[in-house]
Task: inverse folding
C-alpha cells in the first residue's frame, strides 16, 4: 500500500492525535448544522486557528449525511501542474490514521481528460491535506480521492466531476480560500463580491479572488449542469480569528445544495 505521508502536521494543525481530535471536535461542536440535501461543499484550507471555525460549518453539515466516497479538489501551491493530478497513493496519512483512497473512483478518474498521476504535486500540498482530519472525524472510514487542480479549464474540471458523479454516493469537496493579503476592510468588500458571484454561479472567478479558483470554477460549471444552488454557510477572514487586520486572507464555507432530490 502506497501512503502519502502528512506534510503539514504541526504547522497547519496539531501533530498530536489527541490534541488534533479535540480541536476538530471543539470546532464542530460550535456549529448547529441544518440537514439539507447536498451535492458538495466548499471549504477553506488555512491553518485551523485561522479558518477551522469556518470550515467546521461545511463539515458539521456533511456529518449529518456521510457519503459513500468523496472527490476532494484543491489548488496547487508548491508544484505547478497543467490540468489535474492524482497522487498515485492508496492512502493518506494524518496523525489520526490513514484515509484510504476509493479504488473505483481512482480508476474512473484516470480516464478523465488532462488527468495525470503526479506524486510530486501532492507531496507537500496543504490545500488537500488539511481537509483530511476533519473528514476522519465527521465521516470515519469514508474513502477520499484528492485531486490537485492546476491551470485547467472549468469545463475540463467539470468533466472530471461528472465522471466521479457516475459512481453513486460521491460527494464533491472543493478547497479554496478567498482574497489574500489586503487590509481587513478592503478584503471584506472583495470577498463579499466574490461570494455573490459564487452564489450566482459565475464560473469566471479569478485566482486573485480565490486561490482555488480552478477547482471552484469547475465546480460551478457542474452546479450549472445539475442545478445545484451554492449556499453560504459562513465567512470570515484571518483578521477575525488569529491574524492582524493589516493584511488578511478571506475564508468561506458553502453548501452546494441539490434543488432536485
Result:
Amino acid at each position: 500500500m502506497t501512503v502519502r505521508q502528512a506534510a503539514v502536521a504541526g504547522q497547519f494543525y496539531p501533530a498530536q492525535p489527541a490534541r488534533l481530535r479535540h480541536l476538530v471536535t471543539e470546532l464542530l461542536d460550535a456549529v448547529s448544522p441544518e440537514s439539507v440535501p447536498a451535492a458538495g461543499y466548499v471549504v477553506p484550507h488555512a491553518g485551523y486557528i485561522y479558518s477551522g471555525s469556518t470550515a467546521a460549518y461545511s463539515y458539521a453539515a456533511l456529518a449529518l449525511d456521510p457519503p459513500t466516497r468523496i472527490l476532494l479538489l484543491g489548488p496547487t501551491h508548491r508544484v505547478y501542474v497543467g490540468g489535474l493530478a492524482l497522487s498515485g497513493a492508496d492512502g493518506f496519512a494524518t496523525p489520526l490514521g490513514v484515509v484510504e483512497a476509493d479504488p473505483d473512483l481512482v480508476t474512473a478518474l484516470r480516464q478523465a481528460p488532462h488527468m495525470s498521476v503526479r506524486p510530486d504535486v501532492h507531496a507537500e500540498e496543504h490545500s488537500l491535506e488539511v481537509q483530511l482530519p476533519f473528514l476522519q472525524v465527521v465521516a470515519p472510514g469514508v474513502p477520499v480521492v484528492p485531486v490537485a487542480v492546476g491551470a485547467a479549464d472549468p469545463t475540463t474540471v467539470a468533466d472530471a466531476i461528472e465522471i466521479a458523479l457516475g459512481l453513486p454516493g460521491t460527494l464533491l469537496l472543493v478547497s479554496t480560500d478567498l482574497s489574500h493579503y489586503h487590509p481587513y476592510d478592503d478584503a471584506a468588500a472583495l470577498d463579499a463580491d466574490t461570494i455573490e458571484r459564487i452564489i450566482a454561479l459565475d464560473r469566471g472567478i479569478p485566482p486573485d479572488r480565490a486561490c482555488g479558483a480552478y477547482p471552484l470554477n469547475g465546480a460551478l460549471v457542474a452546479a450549472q449542469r445539475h442545478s445545484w444552488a451554492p449556499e453560504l454557510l459562513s465567512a470570515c477572514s484571518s483578521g477575525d480569528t488569529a491574524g492582524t487586520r493589516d493584511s488578511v486572507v478571506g475564508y468561506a464555507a458553502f453548501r452546494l445544495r441539490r434543488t432536485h432530490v
Summary: The first strand starts at residue 3 and ends at 4. The chain has nine helices and twelve strands.
